[in-house]
Every structure is written in C-alpha cells, then in structure tokens.
Amino acid sequence: MAATDASQLRANAMRRKAVQTAFWYAVLILMSLVTVVPFLWILLTSFKGPLDQIVSVPPQLIPRDPTFDNYVRVWNQLPVDRFFLNSIIVAVFTVGLNVLICSLAAYPLAKMRFRGRELIFYLLLATIIVPVQLTYIPSFVLAVKVFNYYDTLRAAILPNLASAFNIFLLRQAFRSVPNDLLDAGRIDGASELRIWWGIVMPVVRPSLATVAIFTFVTSWNDFFWPSLMLHTRELMTLPVGLMAPQGMFTSDFRGIAAGVTMVVIPILIFFIALQRQFVRGLTGAVKG
Which of 45, 49, 161, 201 has the most CB atoms within 10 Å of its CB? Predict the structure, then answer.
C-alpha cells in the first residue's frame, strides 16, 4: 500500500512538472513569435517584387517574385555606404570608450573602500529613472554653445561615454571577483590600476561583452539624438540617413523594408558573434 501511494505521488509530481514545462514552452514560443514575426515580415517584404502584394487577405509572406531590386534602388538613391561607415565609426568609438570609462567607474565602487561610496553608487542609480529625453535640451545647448561639436560625429559619441546601467552591471560583475586575487596582486606590489587591468578585467570578460552588446545596439539604433545633431548628409548615421529624405520612400514599402533590414542585420551579426559571452555576462552580473 505504501509503495502504491509513493508511486502515485511520483506520477502526480511528474504530471505537474510536465504541465508546467508545457506551459512555459508555450509562453516562450508565443513571445518568440511576437518578436520574430514582425522582423520576418519586414525581411520578406524587402525581397518582394512589383507584382507581390504587401498587404493582402490572407497575408502573403513568401514573395512570388523575389528580387534584390529594392536594396539596389535604396543603395543607388542614397549614400548608404557612407551611412554605414559613419554608423560603424560612431558605434566602435562609443562601445570602446563606454566600456573603458564604465569599467573604470565600476571598479572603485565594487572593490575599493572610501567614504561616500554607497551614496555615490545610489545617486548614480537614481539617474536611471530620469528619462533621457529630459537631457536633450541641456545637452543640445552644451553641444552648440560650449563644446562646439554640432554637426560632427563627435556629437553622437561624446554624450554616450558612460551609462549608469553599464556601471551598475560591471559593478555587480566586479563584486563577484574573489578579493583573494586582488590581495595577491597588492602583495606583489601591483597598483590598483594594474590590478584592475591585469586581474579583474580578464575575469569579467563576459560581462564586458554584455556591456559592449548593449552599447552597440543602443548606439547603432539611436535616431533622435543624431537627428538633432547631424544635418550634413555625409555625416549622417544609418538610421538618420535612411529617414532623412522622408518623401523618397513614403509609398514604397519595399524600399522602406530594405532600409530597415540594412539597419537590423549588423546588430544580429554582432549579437550572434557574442551571444555566449552575453549570457555568461548577465549570469555573472546577477550572481554578483
């Protein structure tokens, strides 16, 4: 009788676990569809020819007359190669400087003891709740009146040299590094800067990759601030450049889809290349 009850309990537990697993798989599949279907529709629309329907009932996802003409037309009508180069320059410099400065700011907040450390950290965290749009007016005034980098690529780089969220993420990663490693470096006579660069930074490399991905995606997709600062076409980044001639592709949804795909594809490639480090970095930051 006891063995029968035990087997019945195990069977009930397995059924509950199977139902829970099926539920979470259904939720994940639904979220994946909500995320993937819009991009899939844009991607397929960018290959549709003149005879393919953009909007129809039932919807036509697969183009019957696939063509690259939409990409060729956008490339020929706009200096897309220049937009790409500007976006790459802005993204690379923004990512490199942001990772460097945020890691320098996060290290003392995680591993050095000084008066006011916690106050500084929580004040820094408080800035995350401030909408970034509120900073655009004073930043614009500073850019034009003080720093004089209006209508230059520096205008899209310098305001993004640091991020409170990235500092928080790296601080949590630095906190997970054992203090014994740091103490061993200090015993060997290493300075704090040497410890930061030679001991701590290699250990938190996955978190650095996570910060790099976040920063790259934000910089590459940034539209509003570059649209305020970059008015010369030769200096425009890809999102701004593809939206600048607003009337050129107003009724050409195939051209618009091709332009959107050009913006998204580099982000996907960058994320796929660093996805393992991204997941490991988030795990390390949460544990920290």
Answer: 45
For every residue of the chain, DSSP letters joined together read: -HHHHHHHHHHHHHHHHHHHHHHHHHHHHHHHHHHHHHHHHHHHHTT--TTS-SS-SS---S-SS--SHHHHHHHHHTTHHHHHHHHHHHHHHHHHHHHHHHHHHHHHHHH---TTHHHHHHHHHHGGGS-GGGGHHHHHHIIIIII--TTSTHHHHGGGS--HHHHHHHHHHHHTS-HHHHHHHHHTT--HHHHIIIIIHHHTHHHHHHHHHHHHHHHHH--HHHHHH--SGGG--HHHHHHSSTTTTSS-HHHHHHHHHHHHHHHHHHHHHHHHHHHHHHHHHHH-
Pull the structure tokens for residue 144: 């034009």
Q: CA-CA distance, 157 to 150, in Å (whole number)?
A: 12
Q: d(Cα 271, Cα 15) in Å, to the nearest integer?
A: 37
| Burial of 46: CB neighbours in 10 Å, binned 0-12, 13-18, 19+ | buried
C-alpha 242/C-alpha 248 separation (Å) is 10
Quickly tell me which residue has 């425009």 as its tokens: 236
Res 260: pLDDT: 85
- Output 51 or 123, whichever has higher pLDDT: 123
Confidence (pTM): 0.81
Contact status, residue 76 vs residue 96, Cβ threshold 8 Å: no
Give all domains of the chain, ordered by start, each with its CATH number.
71-287 (1.10.3720.10)
- Angle, vertex CA 78, rays to CA 76 and CA 80, nearest 5: 95
CB 257 within 8 A of CB 43: yes
Q: What is the pLDDT of residues 66-111, one digit of tens each?
A: 888 888 888 888 888 899 999 999 999 999 999 999 999 999 999 9
